[in-house]
Amino acid sequence: MRSFANAPERILKVKIWLFIILLMVMAITSMAQQKPITGVVRNAEDNQPIPQATVTVKGTRTVAITDNGGSFAIQAAPNQTLVVTAVGFQPLEKAVGQQTVLNFQLTGSNAQMQDVVVTALGIRRDQKALAYSTSTIKGEQLTDAISGNWTDALSGKVAGLNLVRSNSGPAGSNKIILRGENNLTGDNEALIVVDGVVINQGSGRRSAIGGEATYGTGSDNMPADYGSGMNDINPEDIESVTVLKGPGAAALYGQRGANGAIIITTKSGNSKRKGWGVTFNSNASLEKINRWPDLQYEYGQGTDGMLHYSFGAGPDGVSTSATSSAYGPRFNGQMFYQYDPVTGMRGTERTLWRPYPNQTRDYFETGRTLTNSISLDGGSDRTTARFSYTNVKNDWILPNTGYGRNTIALSVNSKVNDRLQISSKVNYTNKASDNLPGAGYGNQSIMYWYIFWQPNADLDWLKRYWVPGQEGRKIFYPFSS
Fold this sequence. Notes:
Blueprint: H1 7-33, E1 35-43, E2 54-57, E3 63-65, E4 71-76, E5 81-85, E6 92-95, E7 104-106, E8 116-118, E9 124-126, E10 134-138, H2 139-142, E11 161-165, E12 174-178, E13 191-194, E14 197-198, E15 215-216, E16 238-244, H3 247-253, E17 261-266, E18 275-287, E19 335-340, E20 345-352, E21 367-379, E22 383-395, E23 402-417, E24 420-434, E25 441-442, H4 446-452
Parallel strand pairs: 1-7, 13-17, 15-25
Antiparallel strand pairs: 1-4, 2-3, 2-5, 5-6, 8-9, 10-16, 11-12, 13-14, 16-17, 18-21, 19-20, 21-22, 22-23, 23-24
């Protein structure tokens, strides 16, 4: 007699095999429904192909990107819909149906592209489509009120961006630090990228001589801040500045981008402009001292509260003028042998011991900067160009100090064919600076002299600063040791 003890187990195995076969049939049926769809995405205005457009099967994660010729290939079912999007164009949808070739003609969008950024590879992307944090500043925001250094305009516009200013002359440079200092001894500055080119340490130098020291109370040669390659970029030629923070910068630029990156994109010709356009901008700005430090005018030159004063040794005793300290006799109507500006020596008679309060403020002037810029841009469907010239004239808050700058920029983009596009940008800057002050603590720093200028000295005495008989060759410092 045959045993049926294993019948339930056999029935279970049969059910499992039937279920597997059913799944395979469903998968084959589903695959049979999808088919390859190809096509080309073009600009409806000039019929030119649109590269880097995104083709998506609506409601799914199936995505394709058009190549330089605007072509794409994607898998979709007859009952599905393709959606095409591109920066600067309106989205367009088409049902697949029984077609295997779908071509798209996109219409330009009139809306301003507020959230378009340029990636490290120079590709334009919607900001919301990026996987990392960015902040974008338009060029117009940098030229509303132009300062001596255009990077000043970044202050307050990007969260976590700090500017470390040298405050050294009209061409003083700024260090850009993102999200605070991350080490105590290394470089914390953000990486600067201009049109895909990294500004290295050579073009970013701020001083002309490598051996200059910021502490120079003797004959040391103190550094003068001549600005950097970033300073010399003409803000009128900047299209946008993208601030890239966090690990995204390191992922794109490696270790150099560990402190974040500032990606600067300069302007190019506008292919949508019919013919050529001319733009002229003129900007004038004034600057002056914001606030003054409080200085004492109770004691004159000297040390340890001495009761007498003498410019050089004289009848009243030894010289007390060879010091930068101002803790000598109190101003109380005394008469001392003081400096004679006519002879450049000790006077032959005693004169009133008196202060000259706040006279040093008259030394500073109102700074003025005038910027004039003219640009020409336009082109055809296949070639665009932009030419600009900018002249800057600055007179700083110190007499006989300022700079002049002339900048010429040329950008040409030419589309040879659907697979080859040539882009070139040329920038020329000529900059000259007069009498830039020394930066740091020392005799060549203006603020060093401001702090240590003697309360009993008339600022007008310095107008005759040449040593008698050596005019044009040697300067005389009456109150310096």
